[in-house]
Predict the 3D structure of the following.
Amino acid sequence: MKRRLSILALSLAVVMSLTACGGNSNSGDTSGSTTSAADSSTSAESSTGSAATGFDFAKYKVDYTQATDASKSPKVALDRKDSLVIGVSDTTGIFSVMFGDNSYDWYMCYTMFDFNIDPDFDGKAIPAATDFKISDDGLKYTFTIKDGVKFWDGNPATAKDLEFAYYLLSDPKYDGPNDITKAYIKGLDAYKNGSATTIEGIKVVDDKTLEITCDKASGAAIFNLQVPLMEKSHYAPDFKKGDIAKVKEKLSTPMGTGQYKFVEYKAGQELKLEANENYFKGAPKIKNLIFSITPEGQELQRVMAGETDIDMATVSPDNMKAAKDAGFIDIMRFPTNGFGYVSFNEADPKFSDVRVRQALMYALNRKAVVEKVYGEYANVVNIPESNVSWAYDDEGCNTYDFDLDKAGQLLDEAGWTLNGDGKREKDGKVFTIKFSCMPQNAVTDIMVPVMKDDYAKIGIDVTIENLDWPTLQEKSSKKQLEAFFMAAGLTPDPDSSMANVFKSKGPQNYNNYNNPKIDELYDKGLAELTVEARKPIYKEIYKILNNDLPFLYIYQRSDMWVANARIQGYETSSFREFFYNIYKCEVK
């Protein structure tokens, strides 16, 4: 569906970002990857995990290090006999992947909602709460809700609920981050932009079956058709075209079919959930699930103190050693399907010149930043794609090695020359950058001083604006920031990952980037059905984005999840977070 935003560089779900994370069952194998220092294989001190959990971590390039002495777990953790506490950065409290746009909220949604389609551990599309069939011509998709799928209130999920989700995404007033138009549903344009009151290509066949007919086939269609099961009678029983506001009123009181049921949300503190005893895959083995808001930089410390059971810690040599030395912590590390970046608002004239953006790329010592933050567990990147993707190809791309002289030359060419005070100036205006970021963040705590120092050497001063996560996310999505650091979590498909970001009218184009050639190529890549036909198209896209630099691409790192060994049963990979199968976890 789309990419997801995070301050660490996640995993924006399935879409994109659903990040928040798709491959088509007709489009070939999507599990290919390119190895790098950030995706090392299982080490001698690690195990596949088969004996401990039954899940083959090594098969999916997950470096699993098993705890050596679970008895060292703090008493406060051992005393939690029926609860699993997950540390998570601050959340906006929007419990819907339809309207939320960041990984932290989505983590919670994955436990509360089921989807018609999920990504498998290797990135392929698989049936979730529905079975699905695709016609030979790729124009008809039939979704049949599986037996036993019920909402928390006891009502069975029906095709009408599935239909409701598609009508939400197709509504003229829908203002979320998804773009359902890329699925090419027949009659959607007449509904969204015309006077039609129904969508011709959406048909309820019976209580459990929904049929989608498309005008044309596309390689990413299966994930562009991914939707959560939302109970229509809860969100908007009499939903009509234009009733989006009514639905939004219920986003903080969700109603899903998922593994865990909503109990209570305290903004800035925690979300409490309880096991759905009627979950169609089987009742969760742990009764209570708590998402506990954890300050940036304290993820590992809270797990070590027993305050939380699992969290994503910053991957670094020091944190790896500390987690291993603790004895009671399991470590799961794998290549992030995402990347970290700096964004500049191109509506600001000083950033609209590509030579300026290239100068800023040359003048930032990205390699020094990445090595200091992540050590061997990350790489500098030069395109907006993860090396676990079948679409990854940076051959022939500029590496923008640190070069202050080259940066100065480009600024001179762009008309930003040094004045008598040694500052860059053009038409009487001095070049300054207001950079927005979260305080006490592992990346920006290192990168900001380097950026300020490097840019000062070419005559540009940087001022810092510290924002909390909800404010940073909101302001960036409203295009109210001049420059900021963020990270993107990607989906298994390159279109559903980033087309919404880089297309000129994309719903996640938050920096006003506009290149008609990119629009054309993304449309071309979407129309092809096989990986072989699509690969050269995305290679061309990445070469252009490498030159245009709508973002300054900083790094791809490893995800590092640290977990108290008292909890067993995690299943995870670069494409499928453990939240999807959390019902399998149990207290040992």
The chain has a mean pLDDT of 90. Residues 369 and 447 are 6 Å apart (CA to CA). The first helix runs from residue 50 to 53.
